[in-house]
Amino acid sequence: MEVRSEIFGQARYDKDKVALQGGQVIQRTRLQVWFIRVCSSILIWTCLVQLVAVGELWHPRLLNGFSIWSTLSARVEDAVPPPVILPPARNYTSNGFLKVSCNGGLNQMRAAICDMVTVARLLNLTLVIPELDKKSFWADPSNFEDIFNVKHFIDSLRDEVRIIRRLPKKFGRRYGYQILEMPPVSWSSEKYYLEQILPLYAKYKVIHFNRTDTRFANNGISLELQRLRCRVNFQALKFTPAIEALGQKLVHILQQNGTYIALHLRYEMDMLAFSGCTHGCTEEEAEELKRLRYAFPWWKEKEIISEVKRAEGLCPLTPEEMTLILKALGFDRDTQIYIASGEIFGSERRLAALRTAFPKIVKKEMLLDPEDLKQFQNHSSQMAALDFIVSVASNIFVPTYDGNMARVVEGHRRYLGFKKTVQLDRKKLVELLDLHQNGTLSWDEFSGAVRLAHEKRMGQPSRRKVLTDKPKEEDYFYANPQECLCDGTSCDDLLGPGNLNTTR
């Protein structure tokens, strides 16, 4: 019996072993079949792609009759983006290298980059990718390539100026080379750069402009160079794909909910400290702003009388003042308002009146998932780039202060077909606000006066105001680049006498 059991046990073992081996064989066979199928699919699609490519060259009549051919062609065309056709590189002998360090916030640096490209073109220089400000109030560590698409910037301007990513090593201090560092004179013309800067290249092969804000004049510049400034601003300076994608996501979310106003509420700590404007602040807040102003040596004006500046229209309007102004302009409580700014000084306490009057107030932090904004946190210029995209795309743009962001966005909106931009007359508005709040003007009188004062301040075509001896007070080129808003050499048809803006 024991022998018999051993025989049966052995038989069962052999049977299980065979079954196990058979299963392994089947599994291996299945893997082989799967592998063969994958390889065959790849081979077939490769052949089809090659066939389509050959077909594009030879257009065989036999294949043109089959719908599958057109379908495959369409799919391949969709999958492979068309090649980028670059303009031919400009052939010139470079007189040297121009290195620049931009100062200020995003939009101040943006305008400076446009100016420096134009200076490099004027003097036949090789431009090194600009360095961005990391020491200002915002202390943003972002480099040029963190905000702008470097490759597009270089490639799109190759027919005008040679741009390199970094200075050749042989010009470094390590090799004992001394670079001339200097700030060019503000509001300078072509003559200054040709007569004062260009001769310096005979001695110094590299010049470093360590300040770039407003170093090129608004007016008196040749049409060719003015249009180059526009080309850099409107075409060459694209944000990185990540910034563009998130900015367009914001725009899409807002547009799904209807039209929207972008309110650039420049009621932020740095602006209030710099301007000395404390209207509506507590004594403690006013003292905090004063301490901040004294902490930054390059903010030269220290002792400021806030009410005097406000009366002159030199202060950003407060959130409470903007509440009344928006209502006077005819916006109702269902208006969707996007707040394009950083942290409002006084936070939600100062936004309370505005939010009560206009419940549909949103900010990027409210519309996006925190994970979306994570990579941009602590990078003020990248966050400002998102606000820039949303502001340019808005149905109406309302800036509360005439700063760099407001002016550069206004210029973009003019370029895109004179999109509505409310250019607030702050001096007139402060006067009207005070009269209304002390009971002199009724609401109807106040709102009527506000509307009348802004009938011709909605971003319509207008000539840039020129003040030859007062460049700081004349209209800013990037807010109204009139030379770039028409096709001919003269914009008289667009900017006729009736459009002359004498109120600004």
Question: Mind explaining what this structure looks like?
Answer:
49% of the residues lie in helices and 6% in strands. The chain is mainly alpha-helical. The strands form two sheets. It has a five-stranded parallel β-sheet with strand order 3-2-1-5-4, with helices on one face. A four-stranded parallel β-sheet has the order 8-7-6-9. Helix 19 (426-437) runs antiparallel to helix 20 (443-453).
| Contiguous runs where pLDDT drops below 50 for at least 5 residues | 1-26, 51-77, 500-504
Q: What value does the Rg take, in angstroms? A: 32 Å
Continuous helix count: 20
DSSP helix fraction = 40-55%
Report how far the terminal alpha carbons are from each other: 116 Å
Biggest β-sheet strands, sense, barrel: 5 strands, parallel
Spell out the helices and strands N to C: HHHEHEHHEEHEHHEHHHHEHEHHHEHHH
Spatial ordering of strands, largest sheet:
3-2-1-5-4
Pfam family, one: O-FucT
GO molecular function, one term: calcium ion binding
Transmembrane segments: 34-58
Pathway: Glycan metabolism
What is this structure, in a nutshell?
The longest helix is centred in the first third of the chain and has 57 residues, at 2-58. The chain has helices at 2-58, 61-64, 67-79, 106-123, 144-147, 150-156, 190-197, 223-236, 241-256, 269-275, 283-295, 306-311, 319-328, 347-357, 364-367, 370-373, 380-393, 404-415, 426-437, 443-453, and strands at 97-100, 126-128, 162-164, 180-182, 206-209, 261-264, 337-339, 361-362, 396-399.
